[in-house]
Amino acid sequence: MQRLEHKIALVTGAARGIGAAIAERFQQEGAHVIVTDVDAVAGQALADRIGAVFARLDVSSEDDWARIEAQFPQIDVLVNNAGITGFEGPFDGAPPAHDPEHATLADWRAVHAVNNDGTFLGCRYGIRAMRTKGQGSIINISSRSGIVGIPMAVAYAASKAAVRNHTKSVALYCAGQGLRIRCNSIHPAGIMTPMWEPMLGDGPDRAEKEAAMVADTPMRRFGEASEVAAVAAMLASDEAAYMTGAELSIDGGILAGSAATPGQ
Ligand SMILES: NC(=O)c1ccc[n+]([C@@H]2O[C@H](COP(=O)([O-])OP(=O)(O)OC[C@H]3O[C@@H](n4cnc5c(N)ncnc54)[C@H](O)[C@@H]3O)[C@@H](O)[C@H]2O)c1
């Protein structure tokens, strides 16, 4: 028995990385998947490969969401996954400063437009598109950075904290309305996806950089996108019927200890 049979699931930022892994897993679990992304070429290719449909969606655009609402007025599962750090580039010179003393308002707003406005607009659509059936599952991809401070990526950290809290407001709102629309957040850390490429580079020191980045992770490795997808599949399924407003970390144990590394 597939866990998501007969469910329609829309995933944002699904052309690659965690979103792509979630889309693929949902499809394997029997869902009808709508892959969405700003990258139409990679998004369409992924959709063709896994047997899903593709629709272009910039999550920060209210007009794009209105088009999605007209095209897909009813869904069962929504994953608000699209997110940026602000370090994607390419840049003319060095990457921009994202510390609290030097970050520009424009750079701050650009990150919030995708991570925060995108999640707000997504949840608003999700509630409307699940209201007819009165049930469904909204999954917001936050981050470990939404729980602890990240001094060199303040817009990212603040936006992910907002995603964490908005999840709980949505969960309470839906429960208060007598709807069985659940809303939960997933908090990954150190998942090997193209998001890390600008930080790892392709130089001879790549392996060294990778090892340094997971040195403080209790499990001493990066996570796989498929491991996040497994958690999303559980939250999307009816097995999680009593879970709402919850936050699930998938971080190799980082947040389990205040100093991260056990035994030190
Ligand atoms: N990889 C990690 O270690 C990690 C850790 C914590 C949280 N996350 C979160 O997981 C989510 C996915 O991350 P990833 O590592 O797969 O990133 P990624 O950069 O590999 O993929 C992000 C996808 O989002 C798309 N995207 C960017 N802006 C968009 C927009 N405005 N509208 C629609 N799509 C857009 C990109 O085209 C891309 O396909 C993000 O929200 C990220 O913050 C990732």
Automatic annotation (TrEMBL):
Domain of life: Bacteria
Pfam families, sorted: adh_short_C2
UniProt keywords, alphabetically: Oxidoreductase
An example molecular function term from Gene Ontology annotations: oxidoreductase activity
SUPFAM superfamilies documented for this protein: NAD(P)-binding Rossmann-fold domains (SSF51735)
InterPro entries (UniProt xref): NAD(P)-bd_dom_sf, SDR_fam
Entry keyword annotation includes RNA-binding: no
PANTHER family, per the entry: DEHYDROGENASES, SHORT CHAIN, OXIDOREDUCTASE UCPA
Family: Belongs to the short-chain dehydrogenases/reductases (SDR) family.
Protein's UniProt name: NAD(P)-dependent dehydrogenase, short-chain alcohol dehydrogenase family
Naturally occurring in which organism (per UniProt): Thalassococcus halodurans
